[in-house]
């Protein structure tokens, strides 16, 4: 993230490693943020958010977190995760709520509700990231198409680990739709 110039700094936390939590929190408490967006809903994350200085704190609504956030947004489980996280900005991005509702409506009308593996990312939500490495140099060394999906199997979270078969099915489905796929990780 830092190399892509998407963030100014990063703090790494190792799950269940208390010293890493304490160090990250200490470093973050030294800064006052304009906005703090928290897509993670755990009590541990809530306590961290509570202890970090920010002019505005936005998170998903839970029964227990009214005292932590200035603004709480309904977590819409029917949205793909990236759009669900984007929904944290719905009160500050003109017509985002309408775009999310239209996305769900279009998804249902096209029958994608019965195809849980993929929903196309709407153009308005597609990130535009400038890579520090010239893409032409990359293409000159390897046969890399202009647009491709990069899939990174693996997760440290047991609840989010896909099986090899799941990653294989996703790759096959993307390829059958005419996309190029690169597995990394």
Secondary structure elements and pairings:
Layout: H1 18-29, E1 32-38, H2 43-51, E2 53-60, E3 71-73, H3 81-86, H4 96-109, H5 135-141, E4 149-151, H6 164-176, E5 181-183
Parallel strand pairs: 1-2, 2-3, 4-5
Short description:
With 185 residues, this protein is α/β, with parallel strands linked by helices. It has helices at residues 18-29, 43-51, 81-86, 96-109, 135-141, 164-176; strands at 32-38, 53-60, 71-73, 149-151, 181-183. The chain is built from 6 helices and 5 strands.
Brief descriptors of the model:
3-stranded parallel sheet; 33% helix; alpha/beta; single chain
Q: Give the structural class.
A: alpha/beta
Shape: globular
Number of domains as seen in the coordinates = 3
Strand order of the largest sheet: 1-2-3
The DSSP helix count reads: 6
- Mean of pLDDT: 82
Q: What is the H/E string?
A: HEHEEHHHEHE
What is the CA-based Rg, rounded?
19 Å
Euclidean distance between termini CA atoms:
16 Å
Runs with pLDDT <50, length 5+? none
Describe this structure in words.
This protein is an alpha/beta fold. It folds into three domains: 1-70, no CATH class; 76-126, no CATH class; 133-185, no CATH class. It contains six helices and five strands. Helix 2 links the parallel strand 1 and strand 2 (53-60).
């Amino acid at each position: 993230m830092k190399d892509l110039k998407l963030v100014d700094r990063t703090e790494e936390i190792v799950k269940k490693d208390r010293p890493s939590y304490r160090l990250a929190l200490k470093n973050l408490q030294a800064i006052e943020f304009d906005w703090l967006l928290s897509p993670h809903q755990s009590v541990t994350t809530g306590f961290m958010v509570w202890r970090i200085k920010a002019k505005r704190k936005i998170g998903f609504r839970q029964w227990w977190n009214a005292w932590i956030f200035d603004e709480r947004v309904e977590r819409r489980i029917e949205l793909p995760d990236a759009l669900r996280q984007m929904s944290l900005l719905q009160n500050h991005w003109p017509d985002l709520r309408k775009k999310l509702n239209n996305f769900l409506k279009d998804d249902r009308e096209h029958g994608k509700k019965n195809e849980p593996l993929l929903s196309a990312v709407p153009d308005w939500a597609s990130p535009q990231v400038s890579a520090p490495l010239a893409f032409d140099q990359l293409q000159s060394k390897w046969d890399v198409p202009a647009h491709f999906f990069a899939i990174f199997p693996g997760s440290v979270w047991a609840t989010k680990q896909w099986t090899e078969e799941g990653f294989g099915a996703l790759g096959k489905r993307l390829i059958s739709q005419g996309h190029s796929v690169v597995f990394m990780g």
